[in-house]
Amino acid sequence: MKFGKINKIIAIAMCVPMILAGCAKSDAADKSEAAQPKQTTEEATSVKEEQFTIGIAELVQHPALDASRQGFIDELANQGVNAVLIDQNAQGEISNAQMIAEKFVKDDVDLIFTIATITSQAAKQAIEGTDIPLVFTAVTDPVFSQLVTAMDVTDNNITGVVDAAPIKENLELFKELKKDIKTIGIIYNIGESNSEVQVNQTKEIAKSLGLTIETVGISTVNDIPQAVNTVSKNAEGLYIITDNMVASSISLVAKLAQENKLLTVSADGTHVDEGIMVSKGISFYGIGKQSAVIAKKILVDKVPVSEIPVQTAPEFEKKVNVKTMEALGFTKDNSAFEGAEFVN
């Protein structure tokens, strides 16, 4: 009997430290929890809402549009925007552009970023009746393309950055390269309103410089060789506007133009990397970055789209392709190349 009592006492004595230790751990855990700031429901919701879904619709893959896309992505990260990107390419097809835009709307994305006129027009139609904002880039004239009613009137939830190049300065480059030049050719996609705007603008400006513009329209990239050949019969130079069909085969255009001894000037600096001789134009990477800043204002800063007018590129860049320059008999000290970046 005594031994039984003693055993019970010993068992109880052994349990006491364990119970005390358990209490101490529980106490420490409670204090640790108390030391941590508790996240309110509102704060948790706010953090969750800071991740946005952005649909990117690029018309076709080529260096200029790719540069805009990359500029947008890089600057979103730089601006600290936490975004999930749905990246789509229409492969140059209007029907694809429409399907992509409609899918973005169905997925209820927070914002659509469009690269080029056709994808922008498709997205405009798709977002009607929704509150999804649209930011575009690589559009030459958003008013003519009926994206906005005026550059400073963006009350339909659409704004962006245009890719308009300094046409007069580019035409003057031809005159610096060849003082007695008279005729300059342009090949362009007859189905792209962006190109139609540039052709009309170039013709008007050319008159004031005593130049004649000869245009050849194309419907597919397969028309390019014949178009360049036609231009070369009457023109001494080829002006490359920001036409997406032409840009998608710019290496071929540059090669054919050089074979036909045509002076080549482009509105797009990325074309120089592909063999066009000289360009004074916008940075497509730069206007992509500008578009990302606009997207951040809309999504993060909650600035109404109606308060963000359509923007233009802040500056232009001049580039010269050295191999093409030398093949056409020019040297770096030509006045037309003053201040240019020379690339091989």
Automatic annotation (TrEMBL):
Domain of life, source organism = Bacteria
Q: Pfam families from the xrefs?
A: ABC_sub_bind
UniProt keyword Signal present: yes
Per UniProt, which keywords does this protein have? Signal
Signal peptide stretch: 1-28
Q: What InterPro entries does the database record attribute to this sequence?
A: ABC_transpt-TYRBP-like (IPR007487), Peripla_BP_I (IPR028082)
| PANTHER family the UniProt entry points to | ABC TRANSPORTER, SUBSTRATE-BINDING LIPOPROTEIN (PTHR35271:SF1), ABC TRANSPORTER, SUBSTRATE-BINDING LIPOPROTEIN-RELATED (PTHR35271)
The name under which this protein is listed is Putative ABC transport system substrate-binding protein
Q: Top-down, what is the taxonomic lineage of the species of origin?
A: Bacteria, Bacillati, Bacillota, Tissierellia, Sedimentibacter
